[in-house]
Amino acid sequence: MAFSHTVADVLSTKRCIMYLTGQHNVVPNQDLLSEVTHVALAFMRSNVFNTDENPSEWPLFTTVEKARSHFLPGTKIMVAIGGWGDTAGFEEAAATADSRERWVRNVAAMVQAMGADGVDIDWEYPGGNGEDYKEVPNSEKEWQIEAYPLLLEALRRTLGPSKLISAAVPGLRRDLIAFTESTTPRIADQLDFINVMTYDLMNRRDNVTKHHTGVSNSLAAIDAYLERGVPAEKLNLGFAFYVKWVETGPCPDPANPVGCPTLLLEDPEMGADLGRTGGFSWHDPVPEGEAASFARALKGGRYDEREGGHYYWDEEEHRWWTFDTLDAILRKFPLIVDQRALGGVFAWGLGEDAPKFEHLQAVSKGLRGERERTRAREERMLPTNDEL
Q: Which SUPFAM superfamilies does the annotation name (predicted)?
């Protein structure tokens, strides 16, 4: 497909990264992609690079060449490595100087062979609090606090300055174990940009209802990195193109259900999901058992002006719904992106918003609005003829 313009023609002041996943490998037509500057193909497993051999194939759901053909010329195509629960491969890679050099050498070989513009590192919980935190205590992962920046430093040396390196990083302060005041600037120095996962901010480790991608807790996530020395221009705000629900008990104040007690969501011994929380993307059919409740959530949902998030508590089923509407997405640009002067935004994930791609369009509208607000501010700062 031929395109008449490129990403550079957009003149966007902000990055816009879309994760494209193997689960939902769907791309809209070019008219909806004008704001997308980067695409991260998710995921390639981290352990494929822990080998002394020279791999001839790199397992991914698509090729960089095929992905590139769907987007505007100039769009950067990256390979995302890792993902939720993928920790063992990173741990082996980061353990020693030799293992780090082997891993980054193979990553560089993959980037060259596939023709990618760079990599996105999704070792989401170095230092602890990952999926296995009940089975492997955080005390056994303290060494990763220093090993994580060392791995990124080795990767930058090997890939060089011409290739992009980004990372997906935790959004909850309790999970920023590897991001200390001393390590965070070192981590940021190696990365072109950082995708702060400002979603799933309510998860199965919580015991009261809150917004999984709200304004207040998203600002807290961004501020945690700013406080540790990350330049605002390197930070990207995350958007979730999916909905979440949680089972609760009776809510003491049904009219104000934020903070309502949930049922026990996580096995206290093993940390396993007890099946009392879930979610689905806008692409997916609504599961039969949740369809009636979700219909009520779509019809009766409200926006929390204090904490900033769209929600619905289903009194009939005792089910808490938390998700972004188009309006909730647009509110985040002046309230977060503008307020903290962030470098961009990203979403998980592009195909998850099919077939209507309404949330993608809301993000694009927000970016265009940000440009207009920036121009207005610049115009107000220009001297008048009388001041010249």
A: (Trans)glycosidases
